[in-house]
Amino acid sequence: MTDLGQIITAMVTPFEAGNKSQIDYDATGKLIEHLVNNGSSAIIISGTTGESPTLSHDEEIELLKFAKNKLAELNASTKLVFGAGSNSTQTSITMSKRAEEVGVDALLIVTPYYNKPNQAGLRAHYSLIAQATDLPIILYNVPSRTNISLTADTIIELYRDYPQICMLKEASSNIDIISQIRGQLSAAEFAIYSGDDSLTLPMMAVGAQGVISVASHLVGNEMQEMLNAFKQGELSKAQQIQYKLMPLFDNLFVEPNPTCVKAALAITGLCSAELREPLVPLSAKQEAKLKQVIQKLELQTQ
What we know:
Helices cover 47% and strands 15% of the residues. By secondary structure, it is α/β, with parallel strands linked by helices. The chain has a single domain, classed as Aldolase class I (TIM Barrel). An eight-stranded parallel beta barrel has the order 1-4-5-6-7-8-9-10, surrounded by five helices. A two-stranded antiparallel sheet has the order 2-3. The chain starts with 6 loop residues before the first strand and ends in a 6-residue tail after the last helix.
């Protein structure tokens, strides 16, 4: 199993201010360097936080190549993950192969949306992808977005049939599924990551390894400190950090992701708040509240 560490950032895709049709590569490089220096053990390119539904496949691969070269330039140990998920199994296979050619450490594959496959269909989807690539695969379970959910039995069966399917991003708010998996698969065999920043600490208590995070764009070091404190048995310290960060966690999801984190990154000067439709910017009132939260945390602002 590839060790991706405990704070994986699902990175936004910066667009040029006033020109959302173009990826802002200057800002992308700046953001990657910021994440490397601020607690991210791995970075996901072209996940749904990266607005992958509105990126062309060629844009996704161009962005991936840029990120790989930037990490090499920085001589960073930070791992690189590519979001190759689609509701088309064949598209996921094609993009997985293209990412493997570029050279990444793992793939993030979301459950197929809209089609609503049953568990047999989910097993078929992931099995065919695993047969087409040698890369480690992170299952991404996010029923609020896809309207379907992987069961613990399906996850365990996929791992046992295809050991490269060895990680899970669990964003269902269902902490029980982690206990069910941990009852049969150890952390050394199968890594579980919280898919919700606010649930990271509770999920760690029942066997999660870390988080695939949005908030780590802004507070990666603080989140590393929280997880390290928990692992060292300093529960009170970990709880205090959780309580301190909760207003940020809450305010980053008042509108569909990545609307809020992009607004926050604009406030802190890391990239523009530009989004591709159908997403639209925060209201002035929402942005003002988010800025107050950022200032209270004493994060650098423009």
